[in-house]
Design a protein that fits this description.
Layout: E1 5-10, E2 19-22, E3 32-37, E4 40-45, E5 69-71, E6 78-80, E7 86-88, E8 101-104, E9 107-111
Length: 116
């Protein structure tokens, strides 16, 4: 969309070591989620590559109990946080869809139409 951006949130709104989900872009169907580790953040489309279902089992619940992996609520597939690579489960070897983002002045933004 020619440079139009959508602000997801302030980095401080994502708990350090945690994740936060975001609804779809206007007219979209699938939301996004972000995982934070200190000053580092990654953003993915909230859809498992196996079935396309949302990953979270409750709002903002995207991580394993120990917080070291992203987990799919439907079948327990586990993904590396840093690159979305599926380590175990029916989609092993596949990846989550990463979303390019900008972190400027403490705000996490994506293209206005990011997601599906």
């Amino acid at each position: 969309m020619d440079g139009l951006r959508r602000t997801l949130c302030a980095l401080a709104d994502i708990p350090d070591g945690g994740a936060r989900g975001f609804g779809p872009a206007p007219g979209g169907f699938t939301g996004l989620f972000a995982v934070r580790r200190g000053d580092t953040v990654v953003v993915y489309v909230n859809a498992c590559p196996h079935l396309g279902v949302s990953l979270d089992w409750a709002p903002d619940r995207f991580l394993t109990a120990d917080g070291t992996r992203i987990i799919c609520s439907t079948h327990g597939a586990e993904f590396r946080i840093e690159d979305g690579h599926c380590l175990r489960g029916p989609c092993a070897g596949d990846r989550l869809t990463a979303v390019p983002f900008l972190l400027q002045e403490g705000m996490v933004t994506v293209d206005a139409d990011a997601g599906i």
